[in-house]
Amino acid sequence: MTRVVLLALLSHWRAHRLQLATLLIGIALATGLWSAVQAINAEARASYQRANDQLLLGRFDTLRNPSGTIPIEQYATLRRAGWQVAAVLEGSVRIGENRFRLLGVDMVAYPALPAVTQVEEGTAPPDPADMLTAPGRLLTTPAVADRLQNQPSLPPVLISDALPPGLILTDIGVAETLLDRQGQISHLVVLPQQPKGLPALPEITPDLDRIPAADQLDTAQLTDSFHLNLSAFGLLSFAVGLFIVHGTVGLAFAQRRAMIRTLRALGVSMRRLVWTILAELTLLALIGGVLGLLLGFFIAGALLPDVAATLRGLYGAPVSGQISLQPQWALAGLAMALGGTLLASGHALYRLAHLPLLSGAGVQAWRSAASGRRVIAMAGVAAIALGIGAQLAIGGLIAGFILVAGLLTGSALLLPFLLSILLRGFGARANGPVAQWVWSDMRAQLPGLSLALMALLLALAANIGVSTMVSSFRLTFTGWLDQRLASELYLTAADDAQGQEITQWLAPQVDMILPIRNTEIAHESGPLFLYGVLDHPTYRENWPLIATSDGAWDQVMQGRAVLINEQLARRQNLWPGDELALTSATTLPIAAVYSDYGNPTGQAIVAMPLLDMIAPGVETRQFGIRIPPERASALAQELRDRFDLPSGAVVQQAAIKAQSLAVFDKTFVVTSALNVLTLGVAGFAILTSLLTLWTQRLPQIAPVWALGLTRNRLAWLEVLRSILLAALTAVLALPLGLALAWALLAVINVEAFGWRLPMYLFPVDWAYLLALTILAAFVAGGLPALRLLRLPPADLLRVFANER
Amino acid sequence: MLLKIDDVRKSYPGGRPVLQGVTLNLDRGQTLALTGESGSGKSTLLNLVGALDGFDGGEITLDGTALSGLDDPGRAALRRESMALVFQQFNLIPSLTVAQNLAFHARLANRLDAEWVDHLATRLGLSELLARYPETLSGGQQQRVAIGRAMATRPKLLLADEPTGNLDETASATVLDLMLSLIAETKAALLLVTHSQDIAGRLDHHAHLSGGRVA
Question: Looking at this predicted complex, what is its ipTM?
């Protein structure tokens, strides 16, 4: 019997193929975008995990010196006392045109690194002594090894695929040489096997802090907010896709009421019907889910390289740019498709299960939905209040996301109520009978279209919010580049000697030569780059300070204070007046905080003599050159020719700005792509709603046609209705989008990335988005209108002949 | 002659003939009942006269205008300005109030006479219902609104397709009485499709369709 019932139910889809296609596309889009984001997140997290596993270091406790690096004497003391610790020196090294992360580990103390073991177990194992004695060996991935070719000054390179991308692993002795940091140790790793009866650590090294493995800020934690951001977008797309499913299933159930009444009259129990429908929905969800997984796999594959670039740029996180199909990802996607479909169908199924045997067919009348609309609107107000309340009461990143979720959900729930008020207002002011009918008919259409319009509202608000954030960021970033890149030319010499030679030649013919010198010092917050600057108006007049104290530059130039970047300030809650320990011997008050967008690490600026005191012998290879702008191009060429410099060694300010902006734009490619995809899904939701509502439209249209309006005019009115509804939704989406932008800029950005940005408004972008919305609505309304235009009069006449 | 139906033929898609040369005439102020068995072509003929559908042969002339020569806008203008229709299903516009429905056709034809609409509302017993929406009305009330909407244009010709088909006996009688009295008041012509011999008997003329022809 169940088979017969199932076949009868499935026959509906044979007669409504477009509806079936809509349903499957809805499930596929919801699953696809969600799965794509999950696949990207899973791949990135797998990369972090691989990196941790490959180095093993993140699993052990570490010893760090809150005042800077660890002297080698302390390391020796600990080893002599019996403590099994391994010294690690980390830094970034420039080799040729590229910069790599270099990790030096004391391989005598800790030889069991997976990459080393893999090389030793390979077909041509190196002599273990080679690793430890000069010139040593560099272990790296095949990709990095390719870029290290033709570098005769480097030790021989061994290839291992058991290393994170972009990393060079070597013995600490080799690292000291390559980083030019003799006798320095970034931190010590406390190995798991320790002899018994050791003296307590605080007794031997009281100035070192022991940081448990669980408390270490690893890449996965650093990037959590970024992945949460992506997940939020994925969830939004999923919700928008489910709107399509909800609308289509609801209509299909309404259309099948007569069939279900007949089946019940023929003796099929409601319990059997419900289970059969659940089986049918499961089948459809799985088909749509598989399509969605395929879609998601391709979207993820297309987006992952940009995500990897973003993560490397923002956090220095090692992520490979290739996606791999993982069974748990596919199963999770199918589970989401099934769960989402059942969730979206739950209401319709509940109503069906409680359908009295003799109840009439037909769709819910619009005014009977008015009271429901008010209840939903009140739920919307409550959701908004919850979001604002969470932000005020709790604060932080999670509260920021609750605020955004509350604003979006609440506004979506409020939308039908607000649209109804607007339409009633316009209807009351309409003069002609057609205008009056159009407005009132739009109100009548609201229940059927409200889900699609909610989806559109969410997509538009997300678009406005995110693009306002990105554009504000871009504008600020551009201004910041103008301030930070004040020199007309930037020069990188091959070494100190060449640097000196070039500056001697340059000095008489330029306004000023500003050396760019820095050293990496260990700080309790992580790596900290310390820069030295000369006292020159270039800095005093241009440097972008966001918080300052009186006479900040004077204090810094006199060696009595330090400037720090915003990331360090927000991470450590350090502001002007607070103190920063640069070394165990040097602690300075903070004079000002400067913005430093796109930099994942902490940074500090001191006067040049102080840098030389803290880190004697810091190389002087990079310079900013101040000259009249019109001379920059000719001087750059002359420098290249005279000193045989590669083209990249002398760069004009404009080129660096262009390159920086290109990196910036690449960072937000993923966001823009998800933005467009979500908007596309929302546009599709409107189209499918209009198409699925098509059969219900004829009884509204046919009488007006019979009273003397041509099909041509009615078709245009259909398009106009679609455009007006979408445009009104877009207008309502604007304040919501701006609220979202504020939340992103003032709450989430600060928590996630460590910098706050001013918010700018971009009315031209809104006009463009409105035009895009109108175009989408035109296309969505155009298809049903075309059908109306081509509809034979006989089909319209059936409205008068048959009970529908 | 207001309406001339001359040898009109019509086939369904697939070629099955439904009207095989129907000829009828109707002058101003006259009422004609069209009866016949189901599938005899009564409603089809009414739709052809109402310029709602095209015919395959013959000619229909309304007040001197040949329908075969009209394009879609011309047919729409004719429906808007020269005639009015009342259907079995009432076919009111659900999103408009009773008052808005009553005035709708007249406003479309750009000849709204507010006093006349008020008069109609009173005559049809709708004065208390003007602010309500169609779905809150009974079938008889809805059909009275449909008749009011049709008569508000003071049409030359009223076409009615089983106007009492969905109503009980009492409501049927009320609706028919009102319609006939308004027809008499406005001197309009009435072409009414019905199954009921009683209703047909109350009209001036009676034509019976059988096998696609007037019997």
Answer: 0.83
